[in-house]
């Protein structure tokens, strides 16, 4: 089980901020989330959304077997 | 020091603390950013960070600033959560042997913090809330430091 975190407008779209979800790959996790909630699926694949596995940004697909935290980060606004 | 806080920021207290006991630092520059009311359009500003990640990302830039400007030290304190107009949002202090380095490093750090730092900002107004993206000027402010490198 990994913690899935949503930030910024993504948590507003989903109506949640933190969930425990089991998924083997980042791509399968995205599919699961999009099947449950089409609006969230669209928001997650939107421009500028980055993914961090255990606080390290990753590009493309990635295995989640060792990850304990998966964060979806929409474009950062600065402080 | 890099810290996020839900509590109000006291710039005067932070400056005193930061300046104390420094015998070889000739210059301390500070910047304090306040939340604007925008003539009533903003009732509160809300900032979200990713604890751990946000400090680490700011830390990478602060280490760059330290090397680039030869800083002796720096302090960055950033509010998160809901912030009322007029309240400090961010406090940056830089310490160097001479003033130019302290001023420039402070300016550089603020340009980064305002445009690229991992925060998500929501403006609460009288008619609801909206997420804010960085202004084009914020990105332009940051690129002027790149141009300086290539000079």
Record the SSE blueprint.
The complex is a heterodimer of chains A (79) and B (151).
Chain A: E1 2-6, H1 9-14, E2 18-21, H2 26-36, H3 38-44, E3 50-53, E4 56-58, E5 69-73
Parallel strand pairs in A: 1-5
Antiparallel strand pairs in A: 1-2, 3-4, 3-5
Helix pairs in contact in A: 2-3
Chain B: E1 2-5, H1 11-19, E2 27-34, E3 44-49, H2 53-69, E4 73-79, E5 81-83, E6 88-96, H3 99-115, E7 119-125, E8 128-132, H4 136-150
Parallel strand pairs in B: 1-4
Antiparallel strand pairs in B: 2-6, 3-5, 3-7, 4-6, 7-8
Task: Walk me through the structure.
- The complex is a heterodimer of chains A (79) and B (151).
- With 79 residues, chain A is an alpha+beta fold.
- In chain A, 30% of the residues lie in helices and 27% in strands.
- Chain A is built from three helices and five strands.
- Chain A has a five-stranded mixed β-sheet.
- In chain A, helix 2 runs antiparallel to helix 3.
- The radius of gyration of chain A is 11 Å and the shape is globular.
- The relative contact order of chain A is 0.27.
- The mean pLDDT of chain A is 94.
- Chain B has 151 residues and is α+β, with helices and mostly antiparallel strands.
- Chain B has one domain (2-150): Molybdopterin biosynthesis MoaE subunit (Aldehyde Oxidoreductase, domain 3, Alpha-Beta Complex), CATH 3.90.1170.
- Chain B is built from four helices and eight strands; from the N terminus they run βαββαβββαββα.
- Chain B has helices at 11-19, 53-69, 99-115, 136-150; strands at 2-5, 27-34, 44-49, 73-79, 81-83, 88-96, 119-125, 128-132.
- In chain B, strand 7 and strand 8 (128-132) form a beta hairpin.
- The longest helix of chain B is centred in the middle third of the chain and has 17 residues, at 53-69.
- The mean pLDDT of chain B is 93.
- The chains are: A alpha+beta (79), B alpha+beta (151).
- The A-B interface holds A 5, 7-9, 12, 52, 55, 71, 73-79 and B 33, 47-48, 50, 52-53, 56, 78, 89-90, 113-122, 131-134, 138.
